[in-house]
Amino acid sequence: MCREALEDYTPKMKRLRELVSKVMAKSLNQNEYCFSEQFGKQAALQARFNYCSCWH
Q1: 33/37 Cα distance (integer angstroms)
Q2: Domain boundary assignment for the chain
Q3: What does pTM read for this prediction?
């Protein structure tokens, strides 16, 4: 279950990272690809997992 969730999560986060980078660049009056050119396609993604037990 966790592996499938991570496999679903990763491409969505990559698209979000690309979108946020473009929007930030535009807001700074820069080329929309300036961050992707600087950091490349291999910019780091991080995932955090927290375990919370159910309280019944």
Answers
A1: 6
A2: 2-38
A3: 0.64
Instruction: Name the residue with tokens 């979000």.
Output: 16
Segment 5-16, tens digit of pLDDT: 888 888 888 888
Instruction: Identify the burial level of 47 via C-beta atoms within 10 angstroms of its C-beta, where 0-12 means exposed, 13-18 middle and 19 or more buried.
Output: exposed
CB 26 within 8 A of CB 32: yes
Contacts of 35 (CB under 8 A, 6+ apart): 21, 22, 24, 25
- Predicted confidence at residue 40, as pLDDT, reads 76
Nearest to 35 by CA among 51, 17, 21: 21
Residue 46 has pLDDT above 70, yes or no: no
